[in-house]
Design a protein that fits this description.
By secondary structure, this protein is mostly helical. It has helices at 17-28, 59-76, 85-95; strands spanning 32-36, 39-43. It has a two-stranded antiparallel sheet. A hairpin with a 2-residue loop joins strand 1 and strand 2 (39-43).
């Protein structure tokens, strides 16, 4: 008789539907659209980010670069406050396959 313990494999965790969509969009090199305060935004795959994001550690500057001038202006058109920014970042994170609480 063996003294080895049998370990049950834990079931693999399935990624969330949002993560699956983000992974598909990344594989197809397309963006995913999300809505924020009545405005549609498109989160592009990381490989389409401008190289300029490597020149800064400023999170707001990175967001501006990733969104692009037109989408950044649309975001500012929602008249956001510092209190509102985490909500937008959460939506952006989900659209890019991240954790929905990443904006906090």
């Amino acid at each position: 008789m063996s003294n080895k313990k049998k370990h049950k494999k834990s079931p693999a965790r399935k990624p969330s539907p949002a993560k699956v969509e983000a992974m598909k969009a990344e594989a197809l090199n397309t963006g995913l659209t999300f809505e924020h305060r009545g405005v549609n935004f498109t989160a592009v795959p990381v490989r389409k980010y401008p190289v300029a994001v490597l020149d800064t550690n400023d999170e707001v500057e990175i967001l501006k670069l990733v969104l692009g001038a037109e989408q950044w202006a649309a975001y500012l058109g929602t008249e956001p406050t510092l209190e509102d920014l985490p909500e937008f970042l959460e939506k952006f994170a989900v659209a890019t396959g991240g954790d929905e609480k990443a904006g906090n």
